[in-house]
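User: Need the bound-state model for phosphoric acid mono(formamide)ester:
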Amino acid sequence: MSNTLSFTRNPQLNHQGELQHLLSIEGLPREIIERILDTAAPFTLVAEREVKKVPLLRGKSVFNLFFENSTRTRTTFEIAAKRLSADVINLNINTSSAAKGETLLDTVDNLAAMQADMFVVRHAASGAPYLIAQHLAASGRKHIHVVNAGDGRHAHPTQGLLDMYTIRHYKKDFSQLTVAIVGDILHSRVARSQIHGLTTLGVPEVRVIAPRTLLPTGVERMGVRVFTDMQEGLRGADVVMMLRLQNERMQGALLPSSQEYFKSYGLTPEKLALAKPDAIVMHPGPMNRGVEIDSSVADGSQAVILPQVSFGIAVRMAVMAMLGGGSQ
Ligand code: CP
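Assistant: Bound-state model below.
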């Protein structure tokens, strides 16, 4: 009972206010976000292989549980854990007993019995990592950490954090920025994590740009300005964050066609010229070229899309080190 009560207070923080799990950027204190970004900075040397490994997670076991497809997140979590000297176990969901009907929590219990120290979880169901963390707390296994690697349309906190790291790297200071997030806000866990990160770090103007059908009801309450006209929304932006159309989460026809979408909301050099001349272009990937972004922009001089991926290693190292390595 007491475990459940303390879990509901702030499931990500322990009684000392330190990071216990990483489930969402929403509700994370600014100091913790800044500490993650600061901790990530020296790890870029490891990410770039100037330093091969650090021993912070030596003897620990990190289990990657990806119930949804992934290229960047799964791989960079694996690299990050290995560079922290952890043992990494990648559960192949397609060949696991989940395919025979084993429940998520039974899978977790069995892997926990193999002395797991950390679960990195991606799941199509919003809240799945919370459920796991709550289950572990309620059954006296609070020492096992849970990291949300993307749950449904709810949150993708390490993506949001690596995006904050990327912005800080190129723009240095959040306090003067105009940031435009463009595309399928409705279905995007990345957009939610970006908005929580940007507003917590004090960005004065966060804009979302999308057709009405791809905007969540009441999105203004998250502290953003809403634009349905991309030209207007891009004007004067310092950072342009593009999003993929999440076709796998769409129910019914929300758009006339991808060609029509590209005409109104695709990022072309002409539209990008409305942002500040030194604006950076970001995309969490995977990109759909010719749908939300023109190839000449994706491969152009303002794009920082591949550096985002590299920073993802350092940021995920920072999160795992803070959780499991006693580096708080
Ligand atoms: N950005 C992101 O989550 O990419 P993956 O789906 O490839 O992990």
